[in-house]
Write a structure and sequence with these properties.
By secondary structure, the chain is an alpha/beta fold. It folds into 2 domains: 5-75 and 297-335, Roll (Urease, subunit C, domain 1); 78-289, Alpha-Beta Barrel (TIM Barrel), CATH 3.20.20. It is 27% helix and 26% strand. The strands form 2 sheets. Strands 1, 2, 3, 4, 5, 14, 15 and 16 form an 8-stranded mixed sheet that branches. An 8-stranded parallel sheet has the order 6-7-8-9-10-11-12-13, with helices on both faces. The longest helix is centred in the first third of the chain and has 13 residues, at 89-101. The radius of gyration is 20 Å and the shape is globular.
Length: 337
């Protein structure tokens, strides 16, 4: 067994911990901040989170390797709920490298079957990648089945209105999460269809009407937005819907490989408090990907994916727009950048 690791003395420790489940409504404002906080890590998992004076008194902490993070902000790694993986292998590796460098430790990356098959032998070493296969019109069922059985894809991205009822029943038979999207976002029925067919996620690209907001609020489905769709975020949060944020890399509009930038864009263009944008980019995005048991918040038992920022107060982040404020990145308790 390796010696435990102690990150000690964070000026602000953004834990994002709380009651089980994604944050909704005013709960998105609560970052679970601990002032002068420390984290004890063993074998890549968080053992304890709390104020430094309490953690220092633990017997296990006395034998720990200590990283002093005095005066810094420490937070969970960003979770990117929506990115498009480039077809080019060199470009995809560059995406993963840049996303990690800017603090993304988990990502939902969508691509075609051929891209995912090529990626299987070259997965990013320090980034938890949730692979999503695009299911186009005229899809090959055998190919989709192979992708799921070989674990090349952990979710299906489906335009529900473009497929027959038999197709939708087939997708459900694969027993993997469905991410619904709509090319015609003005069709009011697309959200109802996503809810009716048990989609785990609906990718929102435009503001929603009152009936659609009510559907999100009354269901477990997560609304995933990219910065280009940020104007839809305020109404969704106010309706107590589950909302998550993705970078939108590879998509039209305001897309980026940096979840720092995506959070700032969402706050600016969506009328969000910065705390809400961070919540959408961490714990809520982890719930949207189905990985909240491992990441998205700093809590005992979770994987130690966390960031040390060149900031003493998270509220200063907007002053550094366009600047990478990540100082250190820990993935499963290992310093990787």
């Amino acid at each position: 067994m390796h010696r435990p690791l102690l990150l000690r003395g964070a000026r602000q420790l953004l834990t994002l911990r709380g009651t089980p489940g994604p944050r909704r409504g005013t709960g998105c404002l609560d970052l679970g901040i601990i002032t002068d906080g420390s984290i004890l890590i063993r074998d890549g998992r968080i053992v304890c989170v709390g104020q430094s004076r309490r953690i220092d008194n633990l017997a296990e902490a006395r034998n720990a390797i200590v990283h002093e993070v005095n005066g810094a902000v420490v937070m969970p790694g960003f979770v990117d709920a929506s990115a498009c993986i480039p077809d080019n292998a060199l470009q995809s590796r560059r995406l993963f490298e840049l996303a990690l460098a800017h603090g993304t430790t988990a990502m939902a990356g969508r691509a075609s079957y051929s891209v995912l098959r090529g990626l299987a032998a070259d997965l990013p070493p320090f980034l938890a990648l949730d692979t999503v296969i695009n299911v186009a019109n005229g899809f090959d069922p055998a190919q989709i089945t192979r992708a799921v059985r070989r674990k090349l894809a952990s979710a299906l991205r489906v335009e529900l209105q473009a497929h027959s009822r038999a197709d939708l029943h087939y997708f459900h038979s694969l027993e993997v999460p469905i991410r619904a999207h709509a090319a015609n976002t003005h069709n009011p029925d697309w959200v109802a269809l996503a809810v009716a067919y048990g989609a785990a996620v609906a990718e929102v690209e435009a503001p929603l009407n009152r009936a659609q907001l009510a559907l999100f609020a009354d269901s477990p489905i997560a609304a995933v937005l990219t910065p280009a769709a940020a104007p839809a975020a305020r109404a969704l949060i106010d309706a107590d819907a589950t909302v998550a944020l993705g970078s939108g890399f590879g998509s039209p509009g305001t897309a980026t490989c940096s979840m720092q930038a995506a959070s700032l864009f969402a706050a600016r263009d969506g009328g969000l408090d910065l705390a809400e944008a961070i919540t959408l980019s961490t714990i809520n995005a982890a719930y949207a990907l189905g990985v909240s048991g491992d990441c998205g918040s700093l809590e005992a038992g979770k994987r130690a994916d966390l960031l040390v920022l060149h900031l003493s107060n998270y509220k200063d982040l907007p002053q550094f727009s366009g600047v990478n404020v990540v100082s250190k990145i820990f993935r499963a308790g290992n310093l990787v950048a």
